[in-house]
């Protein structure tokens, strides 16, 4: 039995990291609702999310995390910290991470001017038009104040419905990768019963990512075994092998397309 | 207006990081349900959660994250990767991070022997008794297979109800810090309307952490302004100041104890 899981086979797939910025997540006040959504959307287009971090609203922490992640992954997606208040420091931190000036972006300012009634666009709100030099705006169809892209870093709002709208606008401009195919083989055997043969299956299919997720639902314990990879024939073939293994152990496998079974 | 939020005043409070280990979180298959819970529990005992990371089931990633975080924070809490299957590599990775052997722990083995019926404790399940040398067991009242503490690192299960039970057992052994007091001042003004005076309030109270969280509920937009700190008199005094500021801007403040208002 190996003590090391197979590395995720990224192959030619672009990689990504998510950086969640905000004290409220770390204090437990607010439960993050963005990471799982971004993960699903990236997986759909063949981008491999490889890491996520949550950091507080502290300049040196944000700058260090942006620089660590942008050097390592194809794309970095940040959420949070782009509003009008003193604790919204993301734009300034990203400018510092890239070593560029933070500028008042004319197009962002024009959008805010159209959005706010006369006299309402005060200095605090104008901060939301501050974008690192060279940044490209990310549309915000909900409340206008834009996000931005600079280099491989995409800066989005933390409010979930705004973040989702921004991400919908970003996804078409990303280079994706080969589609990731998945099958889930579920059964009501214990994880420990099937572990040895599952490990052998993983060894026979190093290009696949095979995960084992125990569950308890409708009064029954069981395990969902998820097989993922870019070669659909290998994924379905390995799922068939696994179903046969489960039958050999006295179980009744249920094979479904995707990862949710 | 400052472009840098006040650093979280950790004062004499111990600090912590959470490390979530698992491909399933990064693929979006499983939504993490542990970070928010750990954050809340640590905040209650005056431990400041300062960072969280999610990494895949890849040895070098887990080892690097464990070592980066344990050097930086008082406590590190990991979730996930301690089951019986090939993708459960956390114990081996933590042993490697600490440069110690991974050993079969006699007490852990005894617990598994009591839990499983005769003949059911196979080699795969015995892997759940592997603990880095010097590790102290963390009780698992749900399914017996223990977590462990080594140095300042606490290794817990990823299944939420097991993780919660393990954490309940750990919390009494942690040195907490001064209690963190919080008040939330909510009103139906826009964030941008109050931003300038809020920033000035933060400048007058550098020992407090003041966060601004816009909301939309019951058909109304508004903002919750959260003030946190270890000096309760300063927290309540600043909340009173803020309520007065809001009244001055034509708003109607609602002050509640805690961070949820």
Order of helices and strands of chain A: EHHEHEHEHHEEEEHEHEEHE
Low-confidence blocks of residues of chain A: 1-8
Chain pair with largest interface: A-B, 79 and 79 residues
Residues in helices of chain A, as a percent range = 25-40%
Give the overall pLDDT of chain A as a whole number: 93
- Quaternary state of this entry equals homodimer
CATH class of the largest domain in chain A: Alpha Beta
Strand content of chain A is 25-35%
What is the assigned CATH homologous superfamily of the largest domain in chain A? Answer: MoaB/Mog-like domain
Radius of gyration of chain A: 22 Å
Give the overall shape of chain A, derived from the CA principal axes: elongated
Count of separate DSSP helical elements of chain A = 9
CATH topology of the largest domain in chain A: Molybdenum Cofactor Biosythetic Enzyme, Chain A
Protein name (chains A, B): Competence/damage-inducible protein A
Domain MoaB/Mog (chains A, B): 17-178
Pfam families (chains A, B): FLAD1_M (PF24102), MoCF_biosynth (PF00994)
InterPro entries (chains A, B): CinA, FLAD1_M, MoaB/Mog-like_dom_sf, MoaB/Mog_dom
């Amino acid at each position: 039995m190996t003590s090391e899981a197979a590395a995720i086979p990224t192959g030619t797939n672009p990689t990504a990291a998510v950086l969640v910025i905000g004290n409220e997540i770390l204090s437990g006040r607010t439960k993050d609702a963005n990471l799982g959504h971004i993960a699903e959307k990236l997986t759909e287009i063949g981008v491999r999310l490889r890491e996520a971090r949550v950091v507080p609203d502290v300049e040196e922490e944000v700058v260090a995390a942006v620089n660590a992640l942008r050097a390592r992954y194809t794309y970095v997606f940040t959420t949070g910290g782009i509003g009008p208040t003193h604790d919204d420091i993301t734009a300034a931190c990203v400018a510092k991470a890239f070593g560029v000036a933070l500028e008042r972006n004319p197009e962002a300012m024009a959008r805010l001017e159209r959005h706010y009634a006369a006299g309402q666009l005060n200095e605090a709100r104008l901060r939301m038009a501050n974008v690192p030099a060279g940044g490209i705006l990310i549309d915000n169809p909900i409340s206008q104040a834009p996000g931005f892209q600079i280099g491989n870093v995409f800066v989005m709002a933390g409010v979930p419905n705004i973040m989702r709208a921004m991400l919908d606008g970003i996804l078409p401009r990303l280079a994706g990768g080969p589609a990731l195919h998945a099958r889930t083989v579920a059964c009501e055997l214990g994880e420990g019963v099937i572990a040895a043969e599952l490990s052998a299956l993983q060894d026979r299919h190093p290009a696949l990512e095979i995960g084992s997720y125990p569950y308890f639902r409708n009064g029954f314990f069981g395990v969902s075994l998820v097989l993922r990879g870019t070669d659909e024939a290998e994924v379905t073939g390995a799922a068939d092998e696994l179903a046969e293994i489960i039958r050999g152990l006295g179980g009744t496998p249920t094979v479904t397309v995707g990862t949710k079974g």
